[in-house]
Model the fold of this input.
Amino acid sequence: NASGRACAVKFFLIDYNTHHRQTGTKEERQAWREAEMADKLADAEKEKQFWNRVYGDELKIQVCVIKLNNLWCLMMPYFDQVLDDGEREHCLKHVESHLTRFKGMNLRYNMNDVQWRHVGVRNGCVYIFDLGSLDECHASEINVDAQVEKLRREIQNRD
Done:
């Protein structure tokens, strides 16, 4: 980042496959791209709000939306991956704690995105990231045990 600290940048890409670049006038294509960019900016801002909501001052780093390479992106903290099965087993209780806290905020982490690649360590603390995978819902709709069990099965299936 600008202060020289390691960070991660998540780009919000435009899917040109859903729109034929050759159709319509130049103005229509430009209007389509501007609309897509506005949607991507909204997605980035929404994820930024989730970061501030769930981690607040805990991380002591600012998550911000910026434009790089003419695309909207989210600049956020860098996390070390959790690759070792023993380390993953140790992290499960911390992941469960985060998922339970999310549930208390009426936020559900998308079950399809409950994966070890979205769990990381920073300054000795375990975090769940890719907060664009959070959805607002009623706490009664959230099954934290099933989410944790999914991660536990991933550890067991690697043996």
About this structure: The longest strand covers residues 71-77. Residues 26-55 form the longest helix (30 residues).
